[in-house]
Design a protein that fits this description.
- Keywords: Heme, Iron, Membrane, Metal-binding, Transmembrane, Transmembrane helix.
- This is Succinate dehydrogenase / fumarate reductase cytochrome b subunit.
- GO terms for molecular function: metal ion binding.
- By secondary structure, the protein is mostly helical.
- It has a single domain, classed as Up-down Bundle (3 helical TM bundles of succinate and fumarate reductases).
- It contains 8 helices and no strands.
- The longest helix is centred in the middle third of the chain and has 33 residues.
- Bound molecules: protoporphyrin IX containing FE.
């Protein structure tokens, strides 16, 4: 037991350990996003189905376990994954800049790597701000026009009302950033997990891009359909 307790921080201190933490926590977050996106699409089945789904999220596992037990476990795992993912990202970025006191010699390399790094870094920060907004909106109802005395369906529909088109734009921009982040993140995780090879290169590139595109399209569909009046 003691060996494990000592070994975990030692592994975590290494660059490979931090990358592994990023890959595993990123994987958990991707699974959550896919499930969340599929759940959101229930809005197209109508108010009753969507509200039933929101109710099920809270009563999952009943009567074996009390209400909200499974949801609370999911929330704790998600929260821990987000914190560990961001923490590893910051410490890897610090380590990379400490190891490179002189800027890249080749401009070409600096541009290509700089683009991916900037997209991940600033995109990640905007996504974190978005998640906080989104929780205040649809989990704690603080910034939602309908508030706590409404059904989940009414809250989502009120959120993206045509008069609040700027909220839709904000959600769509954030979700597009999530898509870019997923595309690069999944691809990087394949590298960390040692899955990339010349033979698997194209298939894994396609898998990362397809997953990112499907998640993005699924998420964008809901706010856009409400703002255009296709769902009301
Ligand atoms: C743009 C489309 C999206 C819509 C319409 C949407 C809708 C919702 C709704 C209705 C809830 C409350 C579920 C409930 O408890 O009944 C929720 C929760 C949540 N969403 Fe989203 N969401 C979207 C995109 C995202 C994205 C892109 C992320 C992450 C980057 C995300 C992360 C979360 C989280 C962390 C929760 C809280 C889960 C919990 O603790 O209960 N959502 N979302």
């Amino acid at each position: 037991m003691q060996v494990v307790a000592i070994a975990i921080p030692a592994i975590y201190r290494s660059t490979v350990g931090k990358k592994a933490v990023m890959a595993v926590t990123g994987g958990i977050l991707v699974l959550y996003l896919v499930a969340h996106m599929i759940g959101n699409l229930k809005i197209f089945l109508g108010a009753e189905d969507f509200n039933h789904y929101a109710h099920w999220l809270r009563t999952m596992g009943e009567p074996a376990v009390p209400r909200r037990t499974v949801l609370t476990i999911i929330e704790l795992v998600l929260g821990a994954s987000i914190v560990l993912h961001m923490w590893s990202a910051v410490s890897l970025a610090r380590r990379a800049s400490a190891a490179r006191p002189v800027k890249y010699q080749s401009k070409k390399k600096s541009h290509a790597q700089g683009y991916a790094t900037r997209t991940m870094r600033y995109g990640g920060v905007i996504i974190a701000v978005y998640v906080i907004w989104h929780l205040l909106d649809l989990t704690f109802f603080v910034v939602n026009p309908k508030g706590a005395d409404a059904t989940p369906y009414q809250r989502v529909v009120a959120d993206f009302d045509p008069s609040r088109w700027y909220i839709t734009v904000w959600y769509v921009v954030a979700v597009l950033l999530v898509g870019l982040h997923l595309n690069h993140g999944i691809w990087s995780a394949f590298q960390t997990l040692g899955m990339r090879s010349p033979r698997s290169h194209n298939a894994l590139r396609g898998l990362a891009a397809t997953t990112a595109a499907l998640v993005t399209l699924g998420f964008v569909a809901v706010p856009v359909s409400i703002t255009f009046g296709w769902v009301s």
